[in-house]
Amino acid sequence: MYLIGLTGGIASGKSVVARRLADHGAIHIDADQLARQVVEPGTPGLAAIAERFGPGVIAADGSLDRAALGAIIFSDEDARLALNAITHPAVRDMTKRMIQEAEGRDPSAVVVYDVPLLVEASVDKDYHRFDLIVVVSASRETRIRRLVELRGLTPEDAALRLNSQVTDDERLAIADVVIDSDGTLDETLQQADRLWESLRARTP
Predict the structure, then answer these.
(1) Fewer Cβ neighbours under 10 Å: the N or C end of the chain?
(2) Exposed (0-12), middle (13-18) or buried (19+): which is 64, by Cβ within 10 Å?
(3) Domain covering 2-31+93-202 in this structure, CATH number
(4) Buried b (16+ CB within 10 A) or exposed e, 35-46
(5) Residue 92 has what pLDDT?
(6) Which residues pair with 177 in a beta bridge?
């Protein structure tokens, strides 16, 4: 098995690269999706969030009110760290099981662990030994524009989200490969294609 840690800041284009690699045949494990699963109604994660942040972050149907929680954590670092302390261990344990299952099905599989908070969560050090770390990078201006145009955020809210994550320099410091997504979609996909070609050349 060949394990890739794929990371990048919010609106960097990381998901585009992950989907492209999956199209080529990689097994895609999405940390954001797992983070949603571990806080579904009835989970210990959601109960812990309700206890820590109060009933205001729980919607009428019993699910997590992400907008209400986001309004708290993106402007309060202590609150964000408290949320991470609840969700990160559960996500990492689930990821570890999924990686083991993937290797059991196909010992030569290429597994892409798509994890926005790879640096913040010390994922490599604590749980996984990546064969390659890929960072998808775009300028702050590009990412704010994408958040405003594609996700409907205000520039102020977009800036808060960027500010809640580690700096680009901190991400780039751990990168084995950098994909620059500041250009067109085709240019980003071409870089993902070249990455895949290099992976297939170095794996059985």
Answers:
(1) C
(2) buried
(3) 3.40.50.300
(4) bbebbeeeeebb
(5) 87
(6) 134
